[in-house]
Specification:
The protein is an alpha+beta fold. The chain contains 2 helices and 5 strands. It has helices at about 50-65, 70-80; strands at about 1-5, 10-15, 20-30, 30-40, 65-70. The longest helix has 16 residues, at about 50-65. It is globular, with a radius of gyration of 12 Å.
């Protein structure tokens, strides 16, 4: 399950109630800068990073804000999912 932890400025993914990974973000002049994605080694290979990227991009679209994919993982995700290119600043 992915949630937005606004207090920590990051999206978080939990597995069985445990924090498994996160995607840090910053609001830079109304643009959502997606800074860094990290998933715990023990949770690797489950597609959790992709879940975080999709959630963040869907959230940005729903809020009508552009994103700046500073995180290489998110940038690569956008390359593979061209429907999100319209969200990129």
């Amino acid at each position: 399950m992915v949630t937005d932890n606004e207090a920590a400025s990051r999206y978080e993914v939990h597995v069985d109630g445990e924090l498994a990974g996160f995607l840090e973000y910053r609001d830079v002049s109304g643009v959502l800068a997606l800074v860094h994605t990290e998933v715990g080694e023990e949770y690797g290979g489950r597609g959790l990073g992709a879940q975080l990227a999709k959630f963040a991009l869907d959230d940005a679209q729903a809020r009508g804000v552009k994103v700046s994919p500073l995180c290489p993982f998110v940038a690569k995700y956008i390359e593979k999912h061209p429907e999100y290119r319209v969200t990129v600043r």
